[in-house]
From TrEMBL:
The chain crosses the membrane at residues 52-70, 82-99, 105-127, 139-161, 167-187, 208-225, 245-266, 278-297, 303-324, 336-355, 361-385. This is Predicted arabinose efflux permease, MFS family. The keyword Membrane applies. Keywords: Membrane, Transmembrane, Transmembrane helix. Its main location: membrane.
Length: 395
């Protein structure tokens, strides 16, 4: 039996919309995955001291946090236009970083990059939540899988480009163009109208504020654990197992690969398992993987541990975001996503100084073991999902 033409057009529009989300997530990861490989050349080109570079890089989180807060309100006004707009601004910021010729211009461009990057995090999550409500398809794990995969690919590609003589400007121009193309792909003329027969629980702001804080705290815990591996995994392999630079670089890469694989698995079976099961099992696997990685028995077991931790923790934050999006009424959805995303980002920011300070006292293996125990907090935090309003869906 042939399907009506409008059904085919609706399905094609939804598929194109998902490609746009994947493109934004991938291009965003492309920049941040290659960024670390570009910093040494930029530092040399601008003749920056370590202090000047550190202060300039601090501009990213300084701009990102207030931007996250404001983007929730912006999304209520711009709706489906929010993501293309902020992604376009991000592309401009990336280009300006490459064009910076002075310390001041470099810092100013990083302020724009940080603000736009924070806005993308909120806008992407808000857009996915609205699309899920509109199209009835789970998207969070699928789309979030693109970012770590792009980061894994970007780092060696940028390193190879530099090895072949490409300048930082050339690399950043290419990335800016790709980000700009993803902004165009993210344009969705269909809007954020709810799917017929599907509604979210109409909770008043005060009723869902406390549960959102708890969900945000769980997300912050997961991101603290993630950043500990991303920032300290290579150092752990070099200092504890005498791994060379190439082998040590596989520590964060193994974790990132685990993130992508775990999110694809959750996209495949997540709806059948349920949100609480994904969060509890994710915390357990994250704990087990990081304990094995921290033990530093051998490079192989450490890499396996990091990969297992990545697979486990991978679906937790996307699952939390999806649950919030389904639980909150459409007129409060962007604010709720903004709140949870901002709280989660606090965990990401606190991880490097926390792990670094404790490692100076206790040693890195002991600190990574302590970080692993935060998996228990994640497992317990799954109970916060029960406090969210329950979506009421018509048959």
């Amino acid at each position: 039996m042939r399907q009506p033409k409008f059904r085919v057009r609706e399905r094609a529009s939804a598929q194109n919309g998902v490609l746009g989300l994947l493109a934004v997530a991938a291009s965003w990861g492309l920049f941040w995955g290659g960024w670390a490989a570009l910093i040494p050349e930029i530092k040399s080109d601008l003749a920056l001291t370590d202090q000047q570079l550190g202060l300039a890089l601090f501009a990213v989180p300084v701009a990102a946090v207030p931007s996250m807060v404001l983007t929730g309100r912006l999304a209520q006004r711009l709706a489906q236009h929010t993501l293309p707009v902020v992604t376009g601004v991000f592309a401009l910021g990336v280009l300006l970083v490459g064009l910076s010729g002075t310390h001041l211009a470099f810092t100013a461009s990083l302020l724009l990059v940080g603000a736009a990057s924070g806005a993308i995090e909120v806008a992407l999550n808000a857009t996915m939540a609205a699309r899920e409500a509109r199209d009835g398809e789970r998207l969070f794990n699928k789309v979030h899988a693109a970012t770590p995969l792009a980061m894994v690919v970007a780092a060696p590609c940028v390193g190879l480009a530099r090895q072949l003589g490409a300048s930082a400007l050339a690399v950043l121009v290419v990335i800016a163009v790709l980000v700009g193309l993803s902004a165009v792909m993210a344009i969705d003329p269909a809007g954020w109208s709810e799917k017929s027969g599907s509604t979210a629980a109409q909770a008043a702001p005060r009723q869902f504020y406390s549960p959102l804080l708890l969900v945000g705290a769980v997300a912050a815990t997961v991101l603290l654990m993630e950043n500990a591996v991303e920032q300290w995994g290579a150092i752990h392999l070099e200092t504890e197992l005498a791994a060379g630079p190439l082998l040590a670089s596989f520590g964060p890469a193994a974790y990132m690969a685990g993130l992508s694989a775990g999110r694809l698995l959750a996209q495949w079976q997540g709806a059948a398992l349920g949100d609480r099961t994904l969060v509890i099992s994710g915390g357990a696997l994250g704990l087990a993987g990081l304990v094995v990685g921290a033990a530093a028995w051998s490079p192989t077991t450490t890499l396996i541990g990091f990969a297992v931790a990545g697979v486990g923790l991978a679906p937790v934050v996307p699952t939390l975001m999806g649950a919030v999006g389904r639980a909150v009424a459409h007129d409060q959805r962007s604010k709720a996503i903004s709140l949870v995303t901002t709280i989660g980002y606090a965990g990401f920011l606190s991880s490097p100084p926390l792990v670094g300070t404790l490692a100076g006292w206790l040693g890195l293996p002991a600190v990574l073991t302590i970080v692993a125990l935060f998996g228990l907090v994640v497992m317990a935090g799954a109970a916060a999902l029960r406090l969210l309003p329950t979506p009421a869906r018509a048959a």
